[in-house]
Write a structure and sequence with these properties.
Elements: E1 7-8, E2 21-22, E3 28-32, E4 38-46, E5 52-61, E6 66-72, E7 80-88, E8 97-98, E9 102-107, E10 115-117, E11 124-125, E12 131-137, E13 143-154, E14 157-163, E15 168-171, E16 176-181, E17 193-200, E18 205-211, E19 214-221, E20 225-231, E21 237-244, E22 250-256, E23 266-269, E24 272-274, E25 277-280, E26 286-292, E27 296-303, H1 313-343
């Protein structure tokens, strides 16, 4: 049986002439999640008169480690908030000092997507603390890579943030799509209501691994969490650990910089090869996507990276062409000189 729900809409006004982009103290906290990973949750508020593309920088100390990480967020439109959640795997001790977050941003052009959360009987807070509902494209153009974000509150304020688990790749004008948002299981029993629903496109988490002594930066998009183990000695196989705290299956999309055009990736989860989809974006980066099981902790290997000293096939073919041409020219000169000597 489904419980009734409480949905709070937050309306913000800009006071005076001082507009800014920041994280309110009441909308920011850190906690250890159900897998023991230190998690920072909050919401960035935009009181500028234009849309902004923000990045939030988080610093935490546990007595042994000091960790600083920066994460890009989707565009925030004027007088709106954008919830976020960042995992700090390096923080282990329970006595954590979480510094005030820093927000940098740049102004963006554009209008808000014509996507609205339907505030009707389909919007339900369930007994286990998760929220389900529907969104509708009320605009006149197709929207892509849509996500729903929300802050999650207990009796005394913010306790978590969440984003929709579904991959809503495309939604046509007039079309509806289902979404579900889950709190971390460790605080699910404390959930009172969801608020500050925000619509955005994909948000990505930056990671890096050392390959051949150099920093190899890449990103991923998922509601699951991933940490780097590292490359093997050949630099062609990347190992990661993945954790999905939720019982619901999800997906992950890794974005890797391209080394060569002929890189073909294979994904193995717990030593079993799984189905993956490989594509290339307009900037030439590789994307490798695959499904992640619910309530899982996995060892992942992605193989097929080209060695860093391996030339791109296009350059390799050009090199071979010029090498053959040089040999042909040398052979022609040799034959010419030999014939000249014989005729002398």
């Amino acid at each position: 049986m489904q419980n009734s729900f409480i949905v709070a809409l937050l309306f913000f006004t800009v006071g005076g002439a001082s507009a800014e982009v920041w994280v309110p103290e009441s909308e920011f906290l850190g906690y250890f999640d159900s897998n023991g990973i230190y998690t920072v949750a909050g919401a960035v508020k935009n009181t500028e008169s234009t849309p902004v593309l923000p990045t939030v920088t988080i610093t935490a100390h546990d007595g042994k480690n000091s960790v600083t990480t920066t994460q890009s967020l989707p565009v925030i439109f004027p007088n709106k908030d954008m919830p976020f959640k960042i995992k700090l795997h390096q923080i282990k001790d329970g006595d954590v000092v979480l510094e005030k977050p820093a927000v940098a941003f740049r102004s963006e052009l554009g209008a808000p997507p014509g996507i609205e959360v339907l505030y009707d009987r389909t919007l339900i807070k369930h007994r286990d603390g998760h929220m389900s509902g529907k969104i509708m494209n009320t605009g006149n153009q197709t929207e892509y890579d849509v996500k729903v974000y929300a802050t999650i509150h207990g009796d005394n304020g913010l306790i978590d943030t969440g984003q929709s688990l579904e991959k809503i790749a495309k939604i046509e004008p007039g079309q509806t799509a289902d979404f579900t948002i889950y709190p971390d299981p460790s605080i699910a029993s404390e959930v009172n209501y969801y608020s500050c629903f925000a619509i955005g496109d994909e948000t990505v988490v930056p990671l890096f691994a050392v390959r051949d002594g150099e920093k190899f930066e890449f990103r991923y998009d998922s509601t699951a969490s991933f940490t780097v183990v590292g490359f093997d000695k050949s630099g062609t196989v990347l190992s990661l650990n993945g954790i999905n705290s939720f019982k619901i299956p999800t997906f992950v999309n890794f974005e890797f910089p391209r080394t060569t055009d002929d890189e073909k990736f294979t994904v193995a989860v717990n030593d079993m090869t799984v189905r993956s989809i490989q594509s290339k974006d307009e900037e030439g980066n590789w994307h490798v996507a695959f499904d992640v099981a619910g309530a899982s902790q996995d060892k992942i290997t992605i193989s097929g990276f080209a060695k860093t000293d391996q030339p791109d096939p296009a350059w390799q073919n050009e090199y071979v062409y010029y090498a053959i041409l040089a040999v042909a020219i040398a052979a022609s000169l040799y034959i010419y000189k030999t014939r000249k000597k014989l005729s002398a």
